[in-house]
Specification:
Blueprint (H helix, E strand, L loop, with lengths): L7 E2 L5 E2 L1 H12 L4 H11 L4 H12 L2 H7 L23 E2 L2 E9 L3 E8 L5 E8 L6 H15 L9 E6 L5 E6 L4 E2 H7 L4 H20 L2 E2 L8 E6 L2 E6 L6 E2 L23 H5 L6 H17 L14 H10 L5 H7 L2 H10 L4 H19 L11 H12 L11 H11 L1 H70 L3 H4 L1
Antiparallel strand pairs: 1-2, 3-4, 4-5, 5-6, 6-8, 7-8, 9-11, 10-13, 11-12
Helix pairs in contact: 1-3, 2-3, 7-9, 7-14, 9-11, 9-13, 11-13, 13-14
Amino acid sequence: MMSGSEMRPQAGGEAVDPEVEALLFDAASVFGNAEERNRFLRYACREDAEMLRRLQALIGMGPPADDFFEFEPQVEADDVPSGVHQEDGLGVDVGRYRLVERIGAGGCGVVYLAEQREPVRRKVALKIIRMGLENPESTMLFEAERQALASMNHPNIARILDGGTTESGRAYYVMELVDGEAITTFCDSRKLGIRKRLELFLEVCRAIQHAHQKAVVHRDIKPSNVLIETQESKPAPKVIDFGIARNVGLLSEDGQISGGGLMGTPAYMSPEQVTGNEPVDTRSDVYSLGILLGELLVGSPTHLPLDLLDRSIEDIRDIMRVARPILPSVALASRKPGERSRISRERDVAEDRLLAWCRQDLDWVVGKAVERDPSRRYETVEALAADVCRWLETEPVGARPQTRRYRLAKLVNRNRLWFGAGTLAFLGLAGGLSIATLLFFREKEARAVQEKLRLQAETAHHAETQTRKLWEYRSRVAESAVRLRYGEVSGAE
C-alpha cells in the first residue's frame, strides 16, 4: 500500500504524485469499454509513456488494483477478522459496516457494497470520499451530496441511512442498496412500449420535482443515474448519485470544477452547464430530462461526435456550444433501416406508428424541454410531466400551437367510443332515412301506375258500355225493319 505522501519516480527523474495516478485510474475505471478506456489513458498520459504503461497494467489487474490507490484500512489490526484480505481493501470495517465489493466510483467518492452488522443485518451501499481528496473543496462537495440526500424523502430517490467520518478523517455515508438496471437498459431488454416507458419517466420527473422542492438541483441526470428495480413485480425507478447536486442557494456557480473541467455528462449537460455564462437552475434538470425522454423514445442521443471525450476540454466546450439536440422523429428517420427496425421492436410498436407519434406531439415536448435558451424551456419539471400526461391521455400538449383543427383532432381521438357510437347512429339514421325516402318514392310511383290503370279500366268499361248499347240499338233497328217488312207496324214502333 502506498500512502498519499509518497512520490513515484518518473522516467525522466521527476516525481509523479500518486494522487494524480489515482485520479486517472478511477476516471479510466468508469469506462465500461476497453477501447474507450485506453483512448482516454493515451490522451491523459500522452506526455508520460511510463505512467500510461503502469496504469494500463494496473487496470488489467481488475478489482485488486483499485485499492492500490483507493482504500487504506482505517481500523486497528485487532478489529480485522481473520481471513480478511486487507491488501485489497475489502472485508475492512467502516464503523458498523463491512466492505464487500466495489460497485462504482464518482467524481470525489467510491461506492462499495457493504454489510451492516448492527442493529440489523442487511446489505447497503456505502460511499466514501476518495483517498487523497480530503481537501476543503472535495469535502464540501461530498458533504453537499450527503446533505442533499438527507433532506429528501421520496420513494423514487435512494434514501440515505447513515453517515460519519473514519478515524483518518474520510467522510462517508450509507444509502439503501438499489439493485437495478439503467432505465434505458431495463426498457429495451423487456421491450416496454412507449406508454409504459413514459409512465416510468413520469415517476422520475416526480422524484426530480421533489428534489427541486427541497432546493436541490441534480445536474447529472442520465440513464445510469436512474435505476429501475422491481418491487412486488412492479418496476420502480430510483434516482441516485447526487454527487454534483447543488442547493438553490449556490446556483450562481458556473457548474465547473477546479482545473477547467466539466462537471456532468456531456450528452446530457445543459448549455448553461457547459458555458458557465448563465446560472444553473432547475431548468438545467429539465434539459437533461428532455434528452433522457428522447432516448427512451428513439435511442441514444446522436448530436455529439463519438470521439468527444478524446478531445481537449476547450474543444469539448466549443463543440457543445454549437451542438443542437436532434428531435426524436429526425433521429429515428436518420438511422439505418436495420437500426430503425431494432428500435421499434424494442418498443413493441410499428416503425411508422412510432414515427407518427413523434412527429405529431412528442417532438414538440422534447423540443421544448431541450431549448438552448432556459427561458424557452418548461419552467418546471412538473410542467414537463404535465405535458407527458396530456399525451398519454390524448389531450392537446401545451408545447404545440393550439389550433382549432389540432384540438378537434385530439377531442375526436380522446372520445373515439362516443364519436364512433355517434357516427354509427348518424349513419343508421341516414341509412334509414334514405331507405324510407326510396320506399316513399317507390310507393308514390306505384300509386301513380295504379291510378293510371284505374283510369284505363274506367275508360275501357265506358267504351264497352257504349259499344253494348250501340249493338243493342242496332239490334232493335234491325228487328223493327224486319217487322215493318212484314207489316207489323205496331211491333216495329
